[in-house]
Amino acid sequence: xxxxxxxxxxxxxxxxxxxxxxxxxxxxxxxxxxxxxxxxxxxxxxxxxxxxxxxxxxxxxxxxxxxxxxxxxxxxxxxxxxxxxxxxxxxxxxxxxxxxxxxxx
Length: 105
Hints:
By secondary structure, the protein is α/β, with parallel strands linked by helices.
């Protein structure tokens, strides 16, 4: 059972482009206001996004759109697919309260 989702427009957060995995993970943490203990690694990104998705699915906060701007340098790395998969899992867990747009920077 899910809570009642607040009405209103989706909030929008932009995650700026970065050339390396370390910088991309840090950018997600900053843009989304992850807690101080966020470890800026793939496991930590997954954990924080799953927590966010669960909160949104339970009606905590307005629906959210993440616009992730991706540099060509990062898109060419194996980490791109890993981050994209983590984002897709969070979207699936959010019961349509989270959307992600990946755009070229």
